[in-house]
Amino acid sequence: MVKNDTLAELEFGYREEPIQLSPFQLRVAAVPESWSIALTGGRGGGKSYSIATLIMRHLVKYGSLGARVLFVRQTHQGCEDFVLILRELFMKVWGPSVRYNANTGIWSGFPQGGYLEINQLSSYAEYGKFQGRSYSMICCDEIGQFVTDELINLLRSNLRGALEVPKRMIVASNPAGIGHSWVYRRFVLKANPWRPYDADGETWVTCPSTFEGNIFIDREKYLRDLTAACAHDSELARAFISGDWDVVRGGAFFAHCLDAARVMFPAWRLPEGVTARAYVRPRPTRAGRGIRLAEPDVEGWHFWITMDWGYSAPCIIYLCGRSPGATVDGRWYPRGSVLLLDEISTAHTDQLHIGSEMAVADVALLIKRMCAQYGISPAGTCDDACGIRNQDGVSVVDTFATNGVYFRECGKGSRIGGWTHMREMLNDAGKLDKPGLYVSDAARYFWSTAPFIGRSMRNPEDLDGALDHGVDAARYAIIQRHNPKPQREF
Predict the structure, then answer these.
(1) CA angle 409–415–416, rounded 5-degree value
(2) Domains recognised in the chain with CATH numbers
């Protein structure tokens, strides 16, 4: 075992039980105290214990100066798990003199003074209990359980206190949670591990870890347990074991069918003045002796738009195409395949669950511009709820029609049945003889949300509804009623 020299001041309570840390935890402890820390990586790396030791050092060094520490997790059970870690650690240093009140979540009796609170935070309503309060250190564990970073950002406003006490935030997360996307963009994508970087005017350091660096666990057994837990999802196993944040599907509702290598295609680049129908028209090739060959065009492409309406929530619109069985840009799309060619999204860039509250007239203008670019009529399908009339007898569908965009209710039927159909088409993408669902790389909202949507805890056949606007619009696209011409027999 390696003794942590940087925490030598902590060993005054029970020197016969020195605090022992892993190499990862020692390196985290060496990060300057004025810098905030993002603990990332796979499971079992010792992130929670690192937080506990940093809390203890902060209380020892700055307790007499009024140090105040807040630790939050999304659930009460998660808080209780961390309390057990603190009990073990504090007993080694202070013995029974430090006590925990389970009713208030407050630790008391620190020899140098100081304040430590363990609390739960999962909604804006619960943030009210922290309003107007001050903390010198705020620790947020398992932030990947939060859909967005809004609550975490709100807590930053509580960082204040004496000038002599450094202020910092410490966050920790594993990949493949419901908040995977925003955690990845904020703390992993643009960060070099163990090197400081600026985020919103604050210096951060991202510290990754895996179970392989945790010398205090049976690593062989832990690997077997992780492998067994992810036996049917190799991407999730990669995320948990290696701490890889570049997973595409890990643990998501569409885990076994949404493969970007099969489903994604480069956005069509239409030359100026060329419509979508002209772009997909079969192009003859010379076969010699004056003979030119082309795919038969007995049945043409069908184009339309589909929409999942939202005002405070995002409004997502796709421009869709149904293939008659044709090759475009060198890729074959079997007959009946649905392509999401382009996208309009009113979601905030960093808050994908919040809409821009755009009026129908403004959204209609965006739709007409997109449709004009592809040379198609601004008409298609939408959520059935858009046909519900208000007290004035006017529906969202009516308002769009007034602005020159024409929708009809898709008749979506069973939500579960729609997901089943969508997963089948995603699974069939790339096959030569079965219609699939293909999504352009221009559909940024889809690719920012669909790969990471988790299953509903109440109904495993359904998905978590926090960021389902993009996949809802895609579901309306594939179930829209149509009557294609029968294929000619040759």
Answers:
(1) 150
(2) 5-218 (3.40.50.300), 260-282+293-479 (3.30.420.280)
